[in-house]
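Researcher: Here's a chain I'd like modeled. Treat it as a single chain, no partners, no ligands.
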Amino acid sequence: MSARGVKGLMGWLVVLAPHFPIAALAAETPASPPDEQLDEVLVEGAKPEGHPEKLIEWLTRLVGQFVVEGSVDLRDRDEAQGPIQVQGHSNCVGLYPTQAVQCELKLRWSEAKGLQGEGLPGGILHLDPAIMLFGYEGDHVGIRHMLVGNDGIAETALGYLIEGDTLVSRDKCVNVPGHCERVVRITADSDLELIEMKIDLEVEHQKTLSFMFVMHRTQESK
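Model: Modeled as a single isolated chain. Structure tokens:
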């Protein structure tokens, strides 16, 4: 997908944002996510946040401009080469009053291939540019998120907030053969200094790919 195509898709997502499931904040008793969904998501056994206002406050922590650094760890790559370094930047804006956030990502890393010269998942640059959309979902007291890369592939999942600062989700991979799950952890502390995002792909219960992005808020957006 070209940069023009991604920008067009960003405009489409702005239209889509008001249709994200949203619950009224005035509910007296917080709802609880279904137990079966929690079993799939929360491997550490932490209790998810059940108060809507806490989740929406967490969403506001994502808004701002960021310098991004990180790594891509390809498990099928020669271990001696180590993880691939990532650099870039991100701009996240709030879509109020719909309790949603839209982030434009421009993340770059060097292309990598397997030992036989074959292409590897994650070895091909696909997040320059990309967009990520977050929206509060009241039916499950969670946050729905969607990532669309410049390859046009959209990956979406429902995440739950645990320990006050970390969003965790687990869902099926897109366009990956076999039994593949995509585990996302996003930590946004209340001090608003940085956001940590980790995305792991697990194929047949074995971790095959890890993205780690650390987003440092710029002085202009503090």
